[in-house]
Amino acid sequence: MPLLSAAQSTLVIVDFQARLMPAIHDGARILANARRLADAAGMLSVPILMTEQNPAGLGNTVAELSGAGPVIAKMSFDACAESAFLDALAGDGDLVLCGCETHVCLGQSALSLLEHKRRVVVVQDAVGSRLPESKDVALRRMECHGAEIVTTEMVLFEWLRSATHPRFREVLKLVKQDGL
């Protein structure tokens, strides 16, 4: 099924870490969109899984996302190299990815998840890299290998499906916040 379903999705938040974010191009906007995704996921009972790359070196998850979901610490750029990550994503649901860096940890994780025959949906306005061209090339590469590239707003409205959804007005407030 092409449309995302809240009941069949997991939000994967990759490496939004304190020491990394100041170096990310357009980091504040990307982080705001990740927060919107996490807030909507909470409202719509979408599970969230987070990763931290070398937390001793890059710090923990930024305060804006801290506590949004369980965290898998990793040293490998590819989160799939951590058995706890794959165990936490057991099943065949859709994986909605946001995070940093698009061309390193997020990209390697997405490509590996595709090799594991998972549906990977990358939220282009909620992923970042230090350099815009690194992000652009990574998005094209992931798309060539089968990842779907979407926006935050697309995810939110597909999770809702209808203006009659009981949480519609709450999610709509997230859409109307500055920066989306």
UniProtKB/TrEMBL annotation:
<dbReference type="InterPro" id="IPR000868">
    <property type="entry name" value="Isochorismatase-like_dom"/>
</dbReference>
<feature type="domain" description="Isochorismatase-like">
    <location>
        <begin position="10"/>
        <end position="153"/>
    </location>
</feature>
<dbReference type="InterPro" id="IPR036380">
    <property type="entry name" value="Isochorismatase-like_sf"/>
</dbReference>
<dbReference type="Pfam" id="PF00857">
    <property type="entry name" value="Isochorismatase"/>
</dbReference>
<dbReference type="InterPro" id="IPR050993">
    <property type="entry name" value="Isochorismatase_domain"/>
</dbReference>
<protein>
    <submittedName>
        <fullName>Isochorismatase</fullName>
    </submittedName>
</protein>
